[in-house]
Amino acid sequence: MSTLVAYFSATGTTARAAKTLAEAVGADLFEIVPEQPYSAADLDWRDKNSRSTHEMNDDACRPAVVGRVGNMDAYDTVYVGFPIWWYVEPRIIDTFLEAHDLAGKTIVPFATSGGSGLGKAPQRMTTLAPGATVLEGRLLNGNPGASELRAWAESLAVC
To answer: pTM for this one?
Structure first.
């Protein structure tokens, strides 16, 4: 079995972390792409009428994505990366998790954030991926290098 790094990146920050992580642990890479791309206005968390605010205020919201992992059965560990929105994962991550059968897999959340930790994301992800083991995860702010990420993955005993 092998490892997958799946990620959603609204501004490129999480993408950089995901690519470094995938290289560090020898994983395949999958970008979670929104069917409707997010504009800067969509991402304005201070605007109560922005798209991201509306999505995060609706727990049932599942933004559409382009494509899916076609060979999810090939992976036993799935790192899932995202920016922190409202102290949890963006709803597009919920779309990804619910679109795949992740039972029996280990999910390792990782995130980037301008000011908060992972919050309740790991707990929420556990409910969205029944039968999977969701680990605590980690913030990957500040562009950690490959050796640091490899050491982190090795400490989890899942790489």
So the answer is: 0.95
